[in-house]
Amino acid sequence: RVAARTKRAVTFFCHSLHSIRQMKVTARFVRAATRASVANRGQRRMYSAEKLKRTPLYDLHVQRGAKMTGFAGWDMPLQYEDGILQSHLHCREKASLFDVSHMGQIRIDGKNRVQFLEKLVTADLAGLGKDAATYSLFTNSNGGIIDDTIIANRGDWIYVVVNAGCFDKDKAHIDAAVGKEKDVKVTYINDRALLAIQGPTAASVVQKLVPSGVDLSKIKFMTGAELTVAGIQGCWVQRSGYTGEDGFEISVPAAQSTKLAEAMLADSNVKLCGLGARDSLRLEAGLCLYGHDINDTTTPKSANLVWAVPKARRERGGFLGDNVILNEINKGVETASRRIGLAIEGAPARGTPPSSTTIFFSLFLNQLSP
Fold first, then answer.
1. pTM of the predicted model as reported, rounded to 2 decimal places
2. Residue 277 to residues 26, 150, 273: CA-CA distances in angstroms?
3. N or C end of the chain: smaller count of CB under 10 Å?
4. From the CB of residue 291, how many other CB atoms can be counted at a distance below 10 Å?
5. Which helix (H) or strand (E) element contains residue 204?
6. Could you give the strand order of the β-sheet that contains 145-153, starting from the edge strand earlier in sequence?
7. 304-320 pLDDT, tens per residue?
């Protein structure tokens, strides 16, 4: 119905890496997306007397010429000397290395861990196979999205990654819930870094760094394994990312993170990439950024994230806000707004876009008429 009314509106989420790779970026698109991204990021910066936290790779970023910026309380690389546009294109053509150690890593143990976490997120964790991962949503009692997350079944424990900007409220939300549970233990991991290598050549780069008996082609999208990488034991390697490209996210002991980064950067195909290009890459792939495209008043349907509520959870519910969310999904209750994308012909608006093109950046169409 949205597409019929706007004629040029299309759902911007791609469920296939192949489809995403076919999307061609133009220099003007990236510049426009970057301007919007930086403007939005400026609103999220933390300028206070509190000292910004640093990831284990901070010194490496500075040595490699990164322009650092405050983001969600962390001192993070915005871009490198080659600039955001070239970093964006390099990721689409070869492989880029991202430091995402600012994101929250959480471990949940205990025999009731699945039942506990299913009360907080929309994922079907009971049906999630060992070493498999899924994108999911923390929801509130009104059906809004507290945060979006990646959850992995590590066998006898659950691995959760949350957004840095949402970590404090996520922690408070989880702690309040776990206090009512038995046989559940939550650990907030602070001794590991998180690296993401993304791009068409990412797999070949990592393949060179694992033991000869390991075949990374057997690790499919949204699955993972514990491996030795660049001689570093205990790396959690998962085939996932947030750029629309193939690649891996690797959780590594913090003390060994620089060694791992330098091992990957030794490959001529790999370059460091900062927050600026990470934002334009995810925007081009139609992936949500919390606080920009989704927030605690956005329901999965209005965010066009209905697929993040799998069939099993649509049938049995059991998560916060399920009455609101399932009425929208199962009974066709319309939402006041809907996240969409626009198919742009020619160059996007330059400078300050007129109100008619603001939707290109916000990805929402508000106040849908019947």
1. 0.83
2. 13, 21, 7
3. C
4. 17
5. helix 202-207
6. 133-139, 145-153, 158-162, 104-109, 185-189
7. 999 999 999 999 999 99
